[in-house]
C-alpha cells in the first residue's frame, strides 16, 4: 500500500505500522477515522461515535459562506483578508431570515462543515479561500474538514443570486439549453450526446483544481409548463435525452464511482419541477403546487431522468420545494402502485423519498434539501414551528438542510425526542462517508492555488467550450436562403448590429459586446447607421417576471412591450419583456424598405412566443446564452448550423390560456412535443412560421 501525501497546517502527523497519518484529534494515537487504509464507511461510523450532539447537528446544515474579498470593512476579516468574520444581526436572503455569523465562529462554535460558495473570484482566490476555511476546520476538536458546494459555474448566463451565481471564470459553455441544442443536433446528425460527456469531464477537473467538491447540479427536471421560470437551467423537454445527459454528467463529474477525484453531484429537483401550476414557482407561495392532471405523466415524463441519476450513482438528490396537489391532479402510479399524495414539500414527503427514491430507484446516497425549507419555503408545514419542520424533514429522509445555520431548532427537535439519535447518526454517517471517499480527510484537504489558476487557463478547455457555442446555434427560419452571409453575398454591402434587452443598461452593455466581437472577427463591413445598412443583425434578449417573486398575473411569454394583462385579482397591468420594440420595427422597415435583409437572433431562456417577431425576420435564429462571436460565425457560414430546438415553442397565447378555474388549455405536466395529444380539436400547440416551419422540439435548419 502506497503512502498518501498528507499536508497539515495545524495538527501533527503520527506514524503507525510504517505509515503516516493525520492526528486530527491530537490525542497522539491512530483512531480508526484517521486511518486512510480503512473504508470510508468504517471511518465515518467511528467518527460519528466520537462526535457530540452539537457536532452532529452542525454537520446536517449547509450555509452560504462569503469570502473576505467581498467584505468591504477589512477589520471584519481574518487570515489576511481571506475570511469574512462579520456578524449580521438580521441577515435576510430570499430563503431565510436569521443571524449571520463570521466564518471562524460558524466552524468552531456552530460546528458547520458544509458550505455553499456563490461568489465568482479567480481560481487562485477560490482555492486560497477554501484552503483557509479548511485550516480553521483542522484546528477544531476532531479536525473534521469542510466541503464546499456550488451551483453550476461553466455556463454562460446573466448572474442571479441563488441560481446563476457564477459564470465566466471557469471554461464558459452555452447555457444548459444550449448544451442540449448542440448535443441533440449531433444526435439528429447520426451521432450521440458525447458533447455532454466532454463538457462534464473538462468542467469536473476545473472544479477539482479549485477545491469545490460538491455540485448543486444538474437539473433533471423535464420542462412541461412553458411558463416555469427555471426552464433556462434545464436540458429541455425530452425525458429520454435528459436521462442520457444526466447519466453522462454524473459520470463526467463523479466518474463511474465516487472517489478522491470526483465532484459529488446533487441531482435536482426530485421528482421534477416541470409540472407547475401555470408557471408559478415554489420559491413563493403562489407556486407551491406540482400538478399532474394527466394519467401516467409522473412516471412517463418526470421520473425517468431521476431514475437515470440514481442508476449512475449520483451522490445526493435535492427534492423540490413544491408539494403534489391532490385537487389539481389525477392519481399517479409508479411501477404499478398508486402513489399516495401527501400535500407537503418533497423534502418533507416520506413516501417519495423512501418508497420511491430509495425503495424503487435504489438510491443509497443522502438527501440535500433546497434552501429555506424550514423558513420561507416550508410548503405544507406552514403551521409547524421551525423545530417541528426540522423534525418533519429529517424523519422524512432529508439528511442535509440548506441554506441555514439554525442549529438551535434542529438541536431542539432532537432534545425534545422528535428525531431519534439513530436517525441523526444515520444522516451523519451518510454525509461523512462522502467526505472520506472524496479524500477530504487525507490528501485532498488542500489544493494548490497556483495549479488551479494555471489549469483553468488551459486553452483546450475554452476551445471545446467555444465549439459547443457554435454547435448550439439553431436556425429556425431562412427565407430565400438569406443565410449564410458569405463574402460573395456581402460584397459592397454594409452590416448593422444592435441588441435589444428588457433593460436599457442591458441593451447598452450586451450590444457593445456583440459589436465588439463582430469587429474582432472582421467578417462583415460594419456600419453604425442602420439607415445605410444592407443587412441588419438584431439580437433579442427578452426577460419576463422575477425569479423569486410572483408576477401579478401569469408569466408573459410573448416578446412584447407595454402589453396589457389581467392580474390574478382581475385588475389590469402592463408587462414588457423587450424594450424599444418600436425602434426594432423601425429598423426592420427601413432596411427591408431599401431591399435589405434582416437576421434576428432570439436568446431562449424560456419558450418565447415569437409570433410578433418571426414575420419581421428573413432569417431567425435561436441562441441559448450563446456567445455572439459564435453566432456570427454560423451566420457567415464558417460553421454549418447543427443545433436543434430542445423544447417546443407555443403557437401563441391561445395554446397556453388558463380558464377561470385555473385550468390551462394545454397540459401543465406534458412536454410540448406531446401536448397535441390533449389539445382541443383543431388546435395545435407548436408555432408554425410564414415559411411553414413548425417550431417543435428537434426543429433546426441547415444551409
UniProtKB/TrEMBL annotation:
Keyword Hydrolase present in the record's keywords: the answer is yes
Give the InterPro entries listed for this entry.
Cellulose_Degrad_GH3, GH, Glyco_hydro_3_C, Glyco_hydro_3_C_sf, Glyco_hydro_3_N, Glyco_hydro_3_N_sf
Q: Where is the Glycoside hydrolase family 3 C-terminal domain?
A: 474-703
User: Could you give a GO molecular-function term held by this entry?
Assistant: beta-glucosidase activity
Q: Give the EC number.
A: 3.2.1.21
What are the alphabetically sorted keywords of the record?
A: Glycosidase, Hydrolase, Signal
Which catalytic reaction applies to this protein?
Hydrolysis of terminal, non-reducing beta-D-glucosyl residues with release of beta-D-glucose
List, in alphabetical order, the GO biological process terms annotated in this UniProt record: glucan catabolic process
Enzyme class, first EC level, given as a word: hydrolase
Q: Where is the Glycoside hydrolase family 3 N-terminal domain?
A: 119-432
Similarity section:
Belongs to the glycosyl hydrolase 3 family.
Name this polypeptide is given: beta-glucosidase
Amino acid at each position: 500500500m502506497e503512502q498518501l501525501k498528507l499536508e497539515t497546517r495545524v495538527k501533527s502527523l503520527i506514524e503507525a505500522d510504517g505509515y503516516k497519518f493525520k492526528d486530527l484529534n491530537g490525542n497522539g494515537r491512530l483512531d480508526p477515522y484517521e486511518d486512510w487504509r480503512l473504508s470510508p464507511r468504517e471511518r465515518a461510523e467511528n467518527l460519528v461515535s466520537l462526535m457530540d450532539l452539537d457536532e452532529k447537528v452542525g454537520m446536517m446544515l449547509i450555509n452560504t459562506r462569503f469570502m473576505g474579498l467581498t467584505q468591504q470593512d477589512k477589520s471584519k476579516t481574518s487570515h489576511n483578508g481571506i475570511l469574512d468574520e462579520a456578524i449580521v444581526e438580521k441577515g435576510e436572503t430570499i430563503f431565510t431570515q436569521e443571524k449571520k455569523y463570521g466564518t471562524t465562529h460558524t466552524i468552531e462554535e456552530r460546528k458547520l462543515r458544509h458550505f455553499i460558495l456563490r461568489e465568482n473570484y479567480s481560481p487562485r482566490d477560490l482555492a486560497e479561500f477554501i484552503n483557509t476555511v479548511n485550516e480553521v476546520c483542522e484546528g477544531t476538536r476532531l479536525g473534521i474538514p469542510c466541503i464546499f458546494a456550488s451551483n453550476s459555474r461553466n455556463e454562460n448566463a446573466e448572474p442571479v443570486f441563488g441560481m446563476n451565481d457564477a459564470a465566466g471564470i471557469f471554461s464558459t459553455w452555452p447555457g444548459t439549453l444550449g448544451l442540449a441544442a448542440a448535443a441533440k443536433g449531433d444526435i439528429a446528425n447520426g451521432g450521440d450526446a458525447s458533447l455532454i460527456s466532454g463538457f462534464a469531464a473538462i468542467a469536473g477537473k476545473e472544479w477539482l483544481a479549485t477545491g469545490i467538491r460538491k455540485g448543486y447540479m444538474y437539473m433533471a427536471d423535464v420542462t412541461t409548463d412553458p411558463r416555469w421560470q427555471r426552464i433556462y437551467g434545464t436540458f429541455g423537454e425530452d425525458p429520454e435525452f435528459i436521462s442520457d445527459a444526466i447519466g453522462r454528467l454524473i459520470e463526467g463529474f463523479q466518474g463511474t464511482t465516487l472517489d478522491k477525484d470526483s465532484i459529488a453531484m446533487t441531482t435536482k429537483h426530485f421528482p421534477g419541477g416541470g409540472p407547475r401550476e401555470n408557471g408559478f414557482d415554489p420559491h413563493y407561495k403562489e407556486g407551491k403546487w406540482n400538478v399532474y392532471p394527466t394519467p401516467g405523466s409522473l412516471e412517463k415524463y418526470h421520473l425517468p431522468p431521476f431514475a437515470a441519476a440514481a442508476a449512475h450513482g449520483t451522490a445526493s438528490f435535492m427534492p423540490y420545494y413544491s408539494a403534489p396537489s391532490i385537487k389539481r391532479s389525477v392519481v399517479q402510479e409508479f411501477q404499478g402502485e398508486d402513489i399516495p399524495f401527501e400535500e407537503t414539500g418533497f423534502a418533507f414527503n416520506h413516501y417519495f423519498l423512501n418508497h420511491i427514491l430509495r425503495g424503487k430507484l435504489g438510491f443509497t446516497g443522502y438527501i440535500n434539501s433546497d434552501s429555506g425549507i424550514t423558513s420561507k419555503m416550508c410548503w405544507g408545514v406552514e403551521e409547524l414551528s421551525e423545530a417541528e419542520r426540522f423534525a418533519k424533514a429529517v424523519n422524512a429522509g432529508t439528511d442535509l438542510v440548506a441554506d441555514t445555520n439554525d442549529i438551535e431548532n434542529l438541536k431542539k427537535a432532537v432534545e425534545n425526542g422528535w428525531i431519534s439519535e439513530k436517525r441523526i447518526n444515520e444522516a451523519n454517517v451518510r454525509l461523512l462517508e462522502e467526505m472520506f471517499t472524496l479524500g477530504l480527510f487525507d490528501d485532498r484537504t488542500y489544493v494548490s492555488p497556483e495549479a488551479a489558476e494555471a489549469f483553468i487557463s488551459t486553452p483546450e478547455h475554452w476551445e471545446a467550450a467555444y465549439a459547443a457555442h457554435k454547435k448550439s446555434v439553431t436556425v429556425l427560419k431562412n427565407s430565400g436562403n438569406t443565410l449564410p452571409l458569405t463574402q460573395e453575398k456581402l460584397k459592397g454591402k454594409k452590416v448593422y448590429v444592435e441588441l435589444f434587452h428588457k433593460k436599457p443598461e442591458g441593451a447598452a452593455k450586451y450590444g457593445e459586446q456583440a459589436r465588439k466581437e463582430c469587429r474582432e472577427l472582421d467578417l462583415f463591413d460594419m456600419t453604425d447607421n442602420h439607415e445605410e445598412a444592407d443587412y441588419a443583425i438584431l439580437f433579442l434578449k427578452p426577460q419576463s417576471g422575477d425569479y423569486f417573486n410572483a408576477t401579478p398575473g401569469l408569466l408573459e411569454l410573448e416578446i412584447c412591450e407595454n402589453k396589457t394583462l389581467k392580474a390574478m385579482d382581475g385588475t389590469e397591468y402592463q408587462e414588457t419583456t423587450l424594450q424599444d420594440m418600436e425602434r426594432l420595427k423601425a429598423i426592420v422597415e427601413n432596411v427591408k424598405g431599401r431591399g435589405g435583409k434582416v437576421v434576428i437572433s432570439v436568446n431562449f431562456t424560456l419558450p418565447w412566443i415569437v409570433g410578433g417577431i418571426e414575420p419581421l425576420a428573413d432569417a431567425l435564429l435561436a441562441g441559448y446564452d450563446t456567445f455572439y462571436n459564435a453566432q456570427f460565425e454560423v451566420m457567415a457560414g464558417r460553421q454549418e448550423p447543427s443545433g436543434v430546438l430542445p423544447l417546443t415553442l407555443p403557437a401563441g397565447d391561445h395554446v397556453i390560456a388558463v380558464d377561470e378555474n385555473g385550468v390551462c388549455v394545454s397540459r401543465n405536466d406534458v412536454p410540448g412535443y406531446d401536448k397535441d395529444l390533449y389539445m382541443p380539436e383543431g388546435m395545435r400547440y407548436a408555432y408554425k412560421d410564414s415559411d411553414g416551419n413548425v417550431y417543435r422540439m428537434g426543429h433546426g435548419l441547415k444551409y
